[in-house]
Amino acid sequence: LVLSLAWLDPALGDEEEDGEVVAEEEKEKEEEEVLSDEIKEEDNVLVLHEHNFARALSEHQLLLGEFYAPWCGHCQQLAPAYAQAATELRNQSSPARLGKVDATAQKALATEFGITSYPTLKLFRDGNRTHPLAYTGRKDTQGIVRWMQRRAGPSATLLHDTDTAAAFASSEDLVVIGFFKDLRGKAAQAFYEVAAEMVDLPFGVAAAAELFQAYRLSADTVCLFKKFDERQTDFPVDPEQGLDTAELTRLLRVHSLKLVTEFTNETSNQIFSANIPHHMLLFLNKSSSEQLSLQDGFKVAASAFRGEVLFVVVDVSGYGAEVLSFFGMTPDDAPTLRLVKMENNRKYQMEQDSFSDTAISAFIRAVLDGKVKPHLLSAEPPEDWDTRPVKVLVGKTFEQVAFDETKNVFVKFYAPWCSHCQAMAPAWEELAERYKDREDIVIAEMDATANELENITIHGFPTLHYFPAGPGRKMVEYKSARDVETFSKFLENGGTLPVEPPVVTKTPGNGTGKEDPSVLGTEESRDEL
């Protein structure tokens, strides 16, 4: 551009040359600033790099660092909430601060802290950079604030007497209080660790003898107080084994839920984080009083399976309508029951719905004992499913196509709403067009939200599987680049990618001025179920 302008007008060319000098000076100034250990802020978030990172650690007792990539969509989505959390913590005069590192530019820091995906959040405490703590909270403003607050101050409130304990126990719908004879003992310290992680629950701790007596406790015990179902659930500490943090977390999650929980926007996170292996679902229309009465038997059955099966009511006329397609259902199918195995999303259905507590209990027991086969969804095959370059598979036709011993079949499992699937769709179509005349190669796709397979579980989208010709029902998962040329190499090489010699470059970078996401780390490239 500079040269072309100079050709047009010498005066303009001279002006541009002066601009170059200014630009060079500005560049030198920027480089000096980068080399400085000065810490700048953007929306109360510390802007960190290789030369000021140590200073930031020395000045801030608790520092949460976000390692991001400018091109990462998840990072861009997090940015407003992260900045708001930084502002709230600063307004509270908290010792906790938030910082951010462009990991694509600060490669030394990214390498030091093992950054392989974006965004990655790590907590640095007391200036220690050798053992940062991985962030485990929710990635929204309140989730970040609460997680940092628990680490900035005591994770549990010390309760001195019966009045403060009673007020604390009734302060919210769910409250956890740990009663320990020795607050410096191992059990109490483990309790504090759990409290620091479970930021959505208030935690208190007590050691006074009068409190043990008031709550009829004789030994170390963790108590969950709630304003529903049974009002108090006790978890005694094993005097020999001590307090296991993972087990206590699991128990608190399980018992924090009502015996029967309605699926709503507010409860969905609780339901899926409870880590209960089976979910029993009652689909009903809450506008129908007749259907509402079915909850009685459902709740009676629930008590015998607490911790093993989570009982959930789904209102098909409300928030639950959004999940009906996952079960291949419409609102008209209510009332009905489904049991889901969470490890593989297998769904089980009664031959004929019966809503008594005895029938529900018997059905659940039969599923748990392996006596009931899963109910597999399948759409109807389109009339032209095999006339297009990309063959459209459904549950009913998958077996005969994918395991045809005369064909090499490459299948894309997708979800209609998946942005990553939509992004790679043109490449998949082009690939199919390229191989449409090959008798031995089939390029296919299947909507995995509308079709299920007995022995193949899809956990994220898109998932690509290759089924080579020949006996043995073999399957290879494709995990490489999603472009036509790489797909072709994979197919031409019989379901593997040929080993290529490494490319040696004299200077780092990819010559585009943009970070190559394959060099350092990537944004999540599959949408999870």
Topology:
Layout: H1 2-8, H2 10-35, E1 40-42, E2 45-48, H3 53-59, E3 62-68, H4 73-91, E4 96-102, H5 107-112, E5 117-118, E6 120-125, E7 133-134, H6 141-152, E8 157-159, H7 162-169, E9 174-179, H8 186-197, E10 203-206, H9 209-214, E11 221-226, E12 232-236, H10 245-256, E13 260-262, H11 268-273, E14 278-284, H12 289-292, H13 295-302, E15 309-315, E16 336-341, E17 346-348, H14 357-368, E18 391-393, H15 395-402, E19 408-414, H16 419-434, E20 441-447, E21 460-461, E22 463-467, E23 476-478, H17 484-492, H18 517-520, E24 522-523, E25 527-528
Parallel strand pairs: 2-4, 3-4, 5-24, 8-10, 9-10, 13-15, 14-15, 18-20, 19-20
Antiparallel strand pairs: 1-2, 3-6, 6-7, 9-11, 11-12, 14-16, 16-17, 19-22, 21-25, 22-23
Helix pairs in contact: 1-2, 4-6, 8-10, 13-14
How would you explain this protein's 3D organization?
The protein is α/β, with parallel strands linked by helices. It folds into four domains: 40-152, Glutaredoxin; 157-256, Glutaredoxin (3-Layer(aba) Sandwich), CATH 3.40.30; 261-369, 3-Layer(aba) Sandwich (Glutaredoxin); 391-493, Glutaredoxin (3-Layer(aba) Sandwich). A hairpin with a 5-residue loop joins strand 11 and strand 12. The radius of gyration is 29 Å and the shape is flat. Residues 1-23 and 504-524 have low confidence and may be disordered. InterPro entries: Prot_disulphide_isomerase (IPR005792), Thioredoxin-like_sf (IPR036249), Thioredoxin_domain (IPR013766). Keywords: Chaperone, Disulfide bond, Endoplasmic reticulum, Isomerase, Redox-active center, Repeat, Signal. Belongs to the protein disulfide isomerase family. Pfam families: Thioredoxin (PF00085), Thioredoxin_6 (PF13848).
